[in-house]
From TrEMBL:
Pyridoxal 5'-phosphate binds at G278, E320, P321, G322, R323, Y421. Homodimer. This is Diaminopimelate decarboxylase. Residues 72-327 form the Orn/DAP/Arg decarboxylase 2 N-terminal domain. Substrate binds at R323, R360, Y364, E392, Y421. The modification N6-(pyridoxal phosphate)lysine is found at K96. Its cofactor is pyridoxal 5'-phosphate.
Length: 463
Protein backbone atom coordinates (compact mmCIF):
# COMPACT_ATOMS: atom_id res chain seq x y z
CA UNK A 1 0.00 0.00 0.00
CA UNK A 2 1.37 3.41 -0.86
CA UNK A 3 1.99 5.77 2.03
CA UNK A 4 -0.92 7.94 0.99
CA UNK A 5 -3.39 5.17 0.27
CA UNK A 6 -6.16 4.46 2.74
CA UNK A 7 -8.03 1.24 3.46
CA UNK A 8 -11.29 0.67 1.59
CA UNK A 9 -14.34 1.33 3.73
CA UNK A 10 -13.63 4.21 6.07
CA UNK A 11 -14.03 7.67 4.69
CA UNK A 12 -10.77 9.52 3.99
CA UNK A 13 -11.19 11.94 6.83
CA UNK A 14 -11.58 9.17 9.39
CA UNK A 15 -8.05 8.03 8.70
CA UNK A 16 -5.53 10.29 10.42
CA UNK A 17 -1.91 9.30 9.85
CA UNK A 18 -0.78 6.78 12.42
CA UNK A 19 0.56 8.44 15.57
CA UNK A 20 -0.66 11.84 14.45
CA UNK A 21 -1.62 14.23 17.21
CA UNK A 22 -5.32 14.89 17.41
CA UNK A 23 -5.34 17.09 20.48
CA UNK A 24 -5.52 20.86 19.98
CA UNK A 25 -2.64 23.00 21.25
CA UNK A 26 -3.07 24.61 24.69
CA UNK A 27 -3.27 28.13 23.26
CA UNK A 28 -4.31 28.72 19.68
CA UNK A 29 -3.07 32.31 19.81
CA UNK A 30 0.48 31.32 20.77
CA UNK A 31 3.14 31.44 18.04
CA UNK A 32 5.85 28.84 18.63
CA UNK A 33 9.21 30.59 17.98
CA UNK A 34 10.51 27.27 16.65
CA UNK A 35 8.32 27.53 13.55
CA UNK A 36 7.86 31.31 13.17
CA UNK A 37 10.62 33.66 12.07
CA UNK A 38 12.39 35.81 14.63
CA UNK A 39 10.55 39.10 14.34
CA UNK A 40 7.04 37.61 14.19
CA UNK A 41 4.96 38.54 17.22
CA UNK A 42 1.35 38.87 18.29
CA UNK A 43 0.44 42.20 19.86
CA UNK A 44 -1.68 42.33 23.01
CA UNK A 45 -4.71 43.34 20.97
CA UNK A 46 -4.24 40.25 18.84
CA UNK A 47 -2.85 41.13 15.41
CA UNK A 48 0.37 39.48 14.27
CA UNK A 49 3.26 41.47 12.80
CA UNK A 50 6.58 40.69 11.14
CA UNK A 51 9.48 43.13 11.04
CA UNK A 52 7.25 45.57 12.90
CA UNK A 53 4.46 45.58 10.28
CA UNK A 54 1.01 44.15 10.94
CA UNK A 55 -0.17 41.43 8.58
CA UNK A 56 -3.39 43.29 7.73
CA UNK A 57 -1.32 46.19 6.39
CA UNK A 58 0.89 43.79 4.45
CA UNK A 59 -2.16 42.08 2.95
CA UNK A 60 -3.62 45.41 1.95
CA UNK A 61 -0.44 46.62 0.31
CA UNK A 62 0.80 43.41 -1.33
CA UNK A 63 -2.31 41.24 -1.61
CA UNK A 64 -2.66 37.56 -0.81
CA UNK A 65 -1.43 34.94 -1.17
CA UNK A 66 2.08 36.23 -0.59
CA UNK A 67 5.28 35.06 1.02
CA UNK A 68 6.70 37.42 3.65
CA UNK A 69 10.40 36.95 4.29
CA UNK A 70 11.93 38.20 7.52
CA UNK A 71 15.20 39.74 6.32
CA UNK A 72 16.72 40.06 9.79
CA UNK A 73 16.09 36.40 10.42
CA UNK A 74 17.61 35.41 7.07
CA UNK A 75 20.73 37.46 7.73
CA UNK A 76 21.00 36.18 11.31
CA UNK A 77 20.83 32.58 10.08
CA UNK A 78 23.53 33.27 7.47
CA UNK A 79 25.76 34.72 10.19
CA UNK A 80 25.03 31.83 12.55
CA UNK A 81 26.15 29.34 9.88
CA UNK A 82 29.19 31.40 8.90
CA UNK A 83 30.29 31.94 12.50
CA UNK A 84 29.68 28.31 13.43
CA UNK A 85 31.98 27.10 10.67
CA UNK A 86 34.52 29.91 11.10
CA UNK A 87 37.37 30.53 8.71
CA UNK A 88 38.30 26.86 8.51
CA UNK A 89 35.23 25.88 6.50
CA UNK A 90 32.95 27.25 3.79
CA UNK A 91 29.19 27.60 3.80
CA UNK A 92 27.47 27.47 0.42
CA UNK A 93 23.79 28.47 0.54
CA UNK A 94 21.82 26.05 -1.68
CA UNK A 95 20.02 28.39 -4.06
CA UNK A 96 17.45 25.80 -5.08
CA UNK A 97 15.66 26.40 -1.76
CA UNK A 98 14.91 29.98 -2.82
CA UNK A 99 16.94 32.33 -4.98
CA UNK A 100 16.54 35.94 -6.02
CA UNK A 101 18.94 38.80 -6.62
CA UNK A 102 18.23 40.30 -3.20
CA UNK A 103 19.06 36.95 -1.59
CA UNK A 104 22.34 36.81 -3.51
CA UNK A 105 23.27 40.29 -2.28
CA UNK A 106 22.46 39.39 1.32
CA UNK A 107 24.58 36.24 1.01
CA UNK A 108 27.52 38.31 -0.17
CA UNK A 109 27.07 40.83 2.61
CA UNK A 110 26.90 38.06 5.21
CA UNK A 111 29.93 36.21 3.84
CA UNK A 112 28.31 33.10 2.38
CA UNK A 113 29.01 31.32 -0.89
CA UNK A 114 26.37 29.96 -3.25
CA UNK A 115 25.50 26.57 -4.69
CA UNK A 116 23.60 26.68 -8.00
CA UNK A 117 22.31 23.79 -10.05
CA UNK A 118 21.09 25.30 -13.32
CA UNK A 119 21.91 27.97 -15.86
CA UNK A 120 19.00 30.01 -14.52
CA UNK A 121 20.38 29.98 -10.99
CA UNK A 122 23.86 30.82 -12.31
CA UNK A 123 22.45 33.76 -14.27
CA UNK A 124 20.65 35.07 -11.18
CA UNK A 125 23.79 34.72 -9.06
CA UNK A 126 26.01 36.50 -11.56
CA UNK A 127 23.40 39.19 -12.27
CA UNK A 128 23.40 40.07 -8.58
CA UNK A 129 27.19 40.33 -8.55
CA UNK A 130 28.16 37.13 -6.76
CA UNK A 131 31.85 36.61 -7.60
CA UNK A 132 32.07 33.48 -9.78
CA UNK A 133 34.79 31.94 -7.62
CA UNK A 134 32.28 31.82 -4.73
CA UNK A 135 29.83 29.72 -6.77
CA UNK A 136 29.62 25.92 -6.85
CA UNK A 137 27.82 24.39 -9.83
CA UNK A 138 25.79 21.20 -9.31
CA UNK A 139 23.48 18.96 -11.31
CA UNK A 140 23.30 15.40 -12.55
CA UNK A 141 22.86 16.32 -16.21
CA UNK A 142 24.46 19.66 -16.95
CA UNK A 143 24.07 20.49 -20.63
CA UNK A 144 27.15 21.26 -22.75
CA UNK A 145 25.97 24.90 -22.83
CA UNK A 146 25.67 24.99 -19.04
CA UNK A 147 29.15 23.53 -18.61
CA UNK A 148 30.56 26.05 -21.03
CA UNK A 149 28.90 28.96 -19.25
CA UNK A 150 30.05 27.79 -15.84
CA UNK A 151 33.66 27.27 -16.98
CA UNK A 152 33.69 30.52 -18.90
CA UNK A 153 32.29 32.44 -15.93
CA UNK A 154 35.06 30.94 -13.79
CA UNK A 155 32.92 29.27 -11.11
CA UNK A 156 34.88 28.19 -8.06
CA UNK A 157 33.92 24.56 -8.45
CA UNK A 158 31.92 22.25 -10.62
CA UNK A 159 30.66 19.16 -8.84
CA UNK A 160 31.03 16.25 -11.26
CA UNK A 161 28.21 13.75 -11.18
CA UNK A 162 29.01 11.08 -13.80
CA UNK A 163 31.80 9.57 -15.84
CA UNK A 164 30.52 11.36 -18.94
CA UNK A 165 30.63 14.67 -17.16
CA UNK A 166 34.26 14.23 -16.09
CA UNK A 167 35.20 14.13 -19.76
CA UNK A 168 32.79 16.88 -20.83
CA UNK A 169 34.01 19.38 -18.27
CA UNK A 170 37.67 18.52 -18.93
CA UNK A 171 37.26 18.99 -22.68
CA UNK A 172 35.35 22.25 -22.28
CA UNK A 173 37.98 23.65 -19.93
CA UNK A 174 40.82 22.59 -22.25
CA UNK A 175 39.07 24.15 -25.23
CA UNK A 176 38.68 27.39 -23.30
CA UNK A 177 42.30 27.24 -22.18
CA UNK A 178 41.33 26.83 -18.53
CA UNK A 179 41.85 24.41 -15.69
CA UNK A 180 38.53 23.96 -13.86
CA UNK A 181 38.43 23.22 -10.15
CA UNK A 182 36.13 20.25 -9.60
CA UNK A 183 34.87 17.94 -6.89
CA UNK A 184 33.47 14.47 -7.53
CA UNK A 185 30.08 13.75 -6.02
CA UNK A 186 30.03 10.29 -4.54
CA UNK A 187 27.16 8.16 -3.34
CA UNK A 188 28.20 6.91 0.05
CA UNK A 189 25.46 4.31 0.53
CA UNK A 190 23.68 6.18 3.30
CA UNK A 191 19.99 6.70 2.93
CA UNK A 192 18.97 9.51 5.21
CA UNK A 193 15.51 9.91 6.62
CA UNK A 194 14.06 12.50 8.90
CA UNK A 195 14.80 10.84 12.22
CA UNK A 196 17.02 7.94 11.25
CA UNK A 197 19.42 6.64 8.72
CA UNK A 198 19.74 3.33 7.03
CA UNK A 199 23.01 2.21 5.55
CA UNK A 200 22.19 0.61 2.21
CA UNK A 201 24.34 -1.87 0.36
CA UNK A 202 23.68 -0.25 -2.99
CA UNK A 203 22.34 3.09 -4.11
CA UNK A 204 19.29 3.18 -6.29
CA UNK A 205 19.07 6.85 -7.24
CA UNK A 206 20.34 9.14 -9.95
CA UNK A 207 22.94 11.30 -8.19
CA UNK A 208 26.67 10.85 -7.86
CA UNK A 209 29.14 8.05 -8.47
CA UNK A 210 28.98 5.08 -6.11
CA UNK A 211 31.78 4.38 -3.66
CA UNK A 212 30.67 0.78 -3.91
CA UNK A 213 32.44 -1.38 -6.49
CA UNK A 214 35.35 1.04 -6.77
CA UNK A 215 33.36 3.37 -9.05
CA UNK A 216 34.32 6.57 -7.21
CA UNK A 217 37.98 5.50 -7.04
CA UNK A 218 37.88 5.00 -10.81
CA UNK A 219 36.33 8.46 -11.26
CA UNK A 220 39.19 9.99 -9.26
CA UNK A 221 41.71 8.05 -11.37
CA UNK A 222 40.22 9.47 -14.57
CA UNK A 223 39.82 13.04 -13.27
CA UNK A 224 43.43 13.17 -12.07
CA UNK A 225 44.65 12.30 -15.57
CA UNK A 226 42.84 15.13 -17.36
CA UNK A 227 44.66 18.43 -17.91
CA UNK A 228 41.47 20.49 -17.94
CA UNK A 229 40.58 19.49 -14.38
CA UNK A 230 41.99 20.36 -10.98
CA UNK A 231 40.40 17.80 -8.67
CA UNK A 232 40.15 19.48 -5.28
CA UNK A 233 37.91 17.15 -3.34
CA UNK A 234 35.01 14.80 -2.79
CA UNK A 235 31.37 15.79 -2.36
CA UNK A 236 28.55 13.93 -0.65
CA UNK A 237 24.93 14.95 -0.08
CA UNK A 238 22.85 12.38 1.76
CA UNK A 239 19.31 13.78 1.70
CA UNK A 240 17.04 16.43 3.12
CA UNK A 241 15.20 17.43 6.29
CA UNK A 242 17.61 15.33 8.39
CA UNK A 243 17.82 15.71 12.17
CA UNK A 244 20.08 12.83 13.05
CA UNK A 245 23.83 13.46 12.66
CA UNK A 246 24.51 9.72 12.38
CA UNK A 247 24.01 9.73 8.61
CA UNK A 248 26.59 12.51 8.24
CA UNK A 249 28.97 10.54 10.43
CA UNK A 250 28.81 7.49 8.16
CA UNK A 251 29.08 9.70 5.10
CA UNK A 252 32.12 11.60 6.41
CA UNK A 253 33.83 8.35 7.40
CA UNK A 254 33.38 6.87 3.94
CA UNK A 255 34.51 10.03 2.16
CA UNK A 256 37.65 10.16 4.32
CA UNK A 257 38.31 6.49 3.53
CA UNK A 258 38.24 7.41 -0.15
CA UNK A 259 40.68 10.29 0.48
CA UNK A 260 43.02 7.80 2.17
CA UNK A 261 42.74 5.40 -0.79
CA UNK A 262 43.49 8.27 -3.19
CA UNK A 263 46.57 9.19 -1.16
CA UNK A 264 47.76 5.58 -1.13
CA UNK A 265 47.22 5.08 -4.86
CA UNK A 266 48.24 8.47 -6.27
CA UNK A 267 50.30 10.10 -3.54
CA UNK A 268 47.83 13.02 -3.59
CA UNK A 269 45.96 14.39 -0.58
CA UNK A 270 42.78 16.01 -1.88
CA UNK A 271 42.34 19.22 0.13
CA UNK A 272 38.52 19.54 0.31
CA UNK A 273 35.44 17.63 1.35
CA UNK A 274 31.88 18.84 1.00
CA UNK A 275 29.23 17.17 3.13
CA UNK A 276 26.25 18.72 1.32
CA UNK A 277 23.09 20.13 2.84
CA UNK A 278 19.97 18.52 4.20
CA UNK A 279 19.77 19.81 7.77
CA UNK A 280 16.22 19.75 9.05
CA UNK A 281 14.04 22.61 10.30
CA UNK A 282 10.92 22.76 12.47
CA UNK A 283 7.76 22.70 10.39
CA UNK A 284 5.68 21.89 13.45
CA UNK A 285 6.35 22.10 17.19
CA UNK A 286 7.17 18.38 17.13
CA UNK A 287 10.39 18.96 15.17
CA UNK A 288 13.65 19.61 17.02
CA UNK A 289 16.33 20.90 14.69
CA UNK A 290 19.97 21.30 15.68
CA UNK A 291 21.62 24.70 15.85
CA UNK A 292 24.38 25.49 13.30
CA UNK A 293 27.10 25.54 15.98
CA UNK A 294 26.14 22.02 17.10
CA UNK A 295 26.16 20.81 13.50
CA UNK A 296 29.51 22.48 12.79
CA UNK A 297 31.05 20.97 15.91
CA UNK A 298 29.72 17.49 15.15
CA UNK A 299 30.87 17.56 11.52
CA UNK A 300 34.33 18.93 12.19
CA UNK A 301 34.89 16.45 15.04
CA UNK A 302 33.88 13.55 12.81
CA UNK A 303 36.12 14.64 9.94
CA UNK A 304 39.09 15.46 12.21
CA UNK A 305 38.82 12.12 14.00
CA UNK A 306 38.52 10.12 10.81
CA UNK A 307 41.43 11.97 9.19
CA UNK A 308 43.63 11.49 12.24
CA UNK A 309 43.02 7.78 12.22
CA UNK A 310 43.76 7.63 8.48
CA UNK A 311 46.91 9.75 8.93
CA UNK A 312 45.58 12.52 6.69
CA UNK A 313 45.74 16.28 7.17
CA UNK A 314 42.21 17.54 7.86
CA UNK A 315 40.74 18.81 4.59
CA UNK A 316 38.80 22.06 4.28
CA UNK A 317 35.14 21.25 4.92
CA UNK A 318 32.20 22.82 3.16
CA UNK A 319 28.46 22.45 3.67
CA UNK A 320 25.43 23.46 1.60
CA UNK A 321 22.43 24.31 3.76
CA UNK A 322 19.41 25.64 1.87
CA UNK A 323 16.29 24.87 3.88
CA UNK A 324 18.02 25.46 7.24
CA UNK A 325 18.78 29.04 6.25
CA UNK A 326 15.74 30.24 4.32
CA UNK A 327 13.04 27.78 5.41
CA UNK A 328 12.15 29.27 8.79
CA UNK A 329 12.43 32.88 7.59
CA UNK A 330 9.15 33.15 5.68
CA UNK A 331 5.44 32.49 6.05
CA UNK A 332 2.70 32.41 3.45
CA UNK A 333 -0.20 34.73 4.11
CA UNK A 334 -3.61 33.66 2.79
CA UNK A 335 -7.09 35.08 2.99
CA UNK A 336 -9.84 32.68 3.97
CA UNK A 337 -12.47 32.37 1.23
CA UNK A 338 -14.84 29.67 2.45
CA UNK A 339 -15.28 27.68 5.64
CA UNK A 340 -17.05 24.36 5.12
CA UNK A 341 -17.78 22.23 8.22
CA UNK A 342 -18.24 18.55 7.36
CA UNK A 343 -20.34 17.11 10.17
CA UNK A 344 -18.42 14.60 12.29
CA UNK A 345 -15.28 14.92 10.13
CA UNK A 346 -13.48 18.23 9.98
CA UNK A 347 -13.80 21.76 8.65
CA UNK A 348 -12.39 22.59 5.23
CA UNK A 349 -10.92 26.08 5.08
CA UNK A 350 -10.35 27.27 1.51
CA UNK A 351 -7.70 29.91 0.91
CA UNK A 352 -6.79 32.01 -2.11
CA UNK A 353 -3.64 29.99 -2.94
CA UNK A 354 -2.89 26.29 -2.69
CA UNK A 355 -0.73 23.64 -4.33
CA UNK A 356 0.56 26.25 -6.82
CA UNK A 357 2.36 28.11 -4.00
CA UNK A 358 3.08 25.10 -1.78
CA UNK A 359 3.36 21.74 -3.53
CA UNK A 360 5.23 20.15 -0.63
CA UNK A 361 2.15 18.85 1.19
CA UNK A 362 0.86 17.09 -1.92
CA UNK A 363 4.29 15.93 -3.05
CA UNK A 364 5.94 14.80 0.18
CA UNK A 365 3.10 14.52 2.69
CA UNK A 366 4.81 17.48 4.37
CA UNK A 367 3.34 18.71 7.62
CA UNK A 368 2.69 22.38 8.33
CA UNK A 369 0.92 24.37 10.99
CA UNK A 370 -1.32 27.38 10.52
CA UNK A 371 -2.51 30.29 12.65
CA UNK A 372 -5.16 32.95 12.53
CA UNK A 373 -3.05 36.11 12.31
CA UNK A 374 -5.37 39.05 11.61
CA UNK A 375 -6.89 38.91 15.07
CA UNK A 376 -6.95 36.99 18.31
CA UNK A 377 -9.67 34.51 19.07
CA UNK A 378 -10.71 32.76 22.23
CA UNK A 379 -13.19 30.52 20.43
CA UNK A 380 -12.77 26.78 20.89
CA UNK A 381 -10.36 24.94 18.56
CA UNK A 382 -11.75 23.00 15.60
CA UNK A 383 -9.93 20.44 13.48
CA UNK A 384 -9.34 21.93 10.05
CA UNK A 385 -7.80 21.10 6.72
CA UNK A 386 -6.49 24.13 4.86
CA UNK A 387 -7.05 23.66 1.14
CA UNK A 388 -6.38 25.77 -1.92
CA UNK A 389 -8.52 26.88 -4.82
CA UNK A 390 -7.24 24.45 -7.46
CA UNK A 391 -9.35 21.92 -9.29
CA UNK A 392 -7.93 18.94 -7.49
CA UNK A 393 -8.84 17.26 -4.22
CA UNK A 394 -5.14 16.75 -3.39
CA UNK A 395 -4.80 20.53 -3.28
CA UNK A 396 -4.02 20.58 0.44
CA UNK A 397 -1.79 23.13 2.15
CA UNK A 398 -2.14 21.97 5.77
CA UNK A 399 -3.51 18.49 6.30
CA UNK A 400 -4.47 18.55 9.95
CA UNK A 401 -4.41 21.59 12.20
CA UNK A 402 -6.55 23.49 14.66
CA UNK A 403 -8.03 26.94 14.14
CA UNK A 404 -10.62 28.79 16.22
CA UNK A 405 -14.26 27.89 15.62
CA UNK A 406 -15.20 31.49 14.82
CA UNK A 407 -12.89 31.52 11.76
CA UNK A 408 -14.71 33.34 8.97
CA UNK A 409 -14.26 34.34 5.34
CA UNK A 410 -12.00 37.38 5.14
CA UNK A 411 -9.77 36.32 8.05
CA UNK A 412 -6.04 36.17 7.36
CA UNK A 413 -4.26 32.94 8.17
CA UNK A 414 -0.55 32.23 7.83
CA UNK A 415 1.46 29.06 7.29
CA UNK A 416 4.97 29.34 8.76
CA UNK A 417 8.26 27.81 7.58
CA UNK A 418 7.50 28.21 3.87
CA UNK A 419 10.74 29.98 2.94
CA UNK A 420 12.33 26.91 1.34
CA UNK A 421 11.06 25.01 -1.69
CA UNK A 422 7.68 26.79 -1.83
CA UNK A 423 8.21 29.80 -4.10
CA UNK A 424 11.04 27.94 -5.83
CA UNK A 425 8.68 25.04 -6.68
CA UNK A 426 5.61 27.20 -7.30
CA UNK A 427 3.65 26.58 -10.51
CA UNK A 428 1.06 28.21 -12.72
CA UNK A 429 -1.38 25.31 -12.36
CA UNK A 430 -4.85 26.48 -13.37
CA UNK A 431 -3.07 29.59 -14.62
CA UNK A 432 -2.51 30.69 -11.05
CA UNK A 433 -0.32 33.76 -10.73
CA UNK A 434 2.71 32.93 -8.65
CA UNK A 435 2.73 35.01 -5.44
CA UNK A 436 5.28 37.69 -4.64
CA UNK A 437 8.06 37.41 -2.10
CA UNK A 438 8.13 40.48 0.12
CA UNK A 439 11.10 41.16 2.36
CA UNK A 440 10.22 42.80 5.66
CA UNK A 441 12.71 44.53 7.94
CA UNK A 442 12.58 47.29 10.56
CA UNK A 443 9.13 48.52 9.67
CA UNK A 444 9.76 48.45 5.92
CA UNK A 445 8.48 45.99 3.36
CA UNK A 446 9.69 45.65 -0.19
CA UNK A 447 8.91 43.26 -2.99
CA UNK A 448 11.94 41.16 -3.98
CA UNK A 449 10.06 38.92 -6.44
CA UNK A 450 6.89 40.49 -7.76
CA UNK A 451 3.54 38.80 -8.18
CA UNK A 452 2.95 37.34 -11.63
CA UNK A 453 0.35 39.06 -13.72
CA UNK A 454 -2.04 37.87 -16.39
CA UNK A 455 0.16 39.76 -18.87
CA UNK A 456 3.04 37.49 -17.80
CA UNK A 457 0.92 34.47 -18.67
CA UNK A 458 -0.11 35.87 -22.03
CA UNK A 459 3.44 36.93 -22.86
CA UNK A 460 4.53 33.28 -22.84
CA UNK A 461 1.45 32.18 -24.76
CA UNK A 462 2.40 33.30 -28.24
CA UNK A 463 -0.98 32.47 -29.70
N1 LIG B 1 23.35 20.31 -1.77
C1 LIG B 1 22.88 19.48 -2.70
C2 LIG B 1 23.84 18.81 -3.59
C3 LIG B 1 21.51 19.24 -2.83
O1 LIG B 1 21.08 18.39 -3.75
C4 LIG B 1 20.61 19.90 -1.96
C5 LIG B 1 19.17 19.69 -2.07
C6 LIG B 1 21.14 20.79 -1.01
C7 LIG B 1 22.52 20.96 -0.93
C8 LIG B 1 20.26 21.57 -0.06
O2 LIG B 1 19.50 20.75 0.75
P1 LIG B 1 18.68 21.41 1.99
O3 LIG B 1 19.69 21.88 2.98
O4 LIG B 1 17.89 22.54 1.44
O5 LIG B 1 17.82 20.30 2.47
N2 LIG B 1 12.24 19.94 -2.80
C9 LIG B 1 12.56 19.16 -1.62
C10 LIG B 1 14.02 19.25 -1.27
C11 LIG B 1 14.93 18.83 -2.41
C12 LIG B 1 16.37 19.02 -2.06
C13 LIG B 1 17.26 18.75 -3.21
N3 LIG B 1 18.65 18.96 -2.96
C14 LIG B 1 11.70 19.66 -0.46
O6 LIG B 1 10.87 20.54 -0.65
O7 LIG B 1 11.80 19.13 0.65
Amino acid sequence: MSRSAHPAGPRHADVLPEGHWTAPPADLNALDPKVWSRTVERAAEGAVSVGGIEVARLAEEFGTPAYFLDEDDFRARCRAWRDAFGTEADVFYAGKAFLSRAIVRWLQEEGLNLDVCSAGELTTALAAGMPAERIAYHGNNKSPEEIERAVEAGVGRIVLDSFQEIVRVAHTAERLGKRQRVQIRVTVGVEAHTHEFIATAHEDQKFGIALAGGQAAEAVRRALKLDGLELTGIHSHIGSQIFDMAGFEVSARRVVQLLAEVRDEHGVELPEIDLGGGLGIAYTSDDDPREPHEIAKALSEIVTRECESAGLATPRISVEPGRAIVGPTAFTLYRVGTVKPLEGLRTYVSVDGGMSDNIRTALYDAEYTVALVSRRSDAEPILVRVVGKHCESGDIVVKDAFLPADLAPGDLIAVPATGAYCRSMASNYNHALRPPVVAVRDGEARVIVRRETEEDLLRLDVG
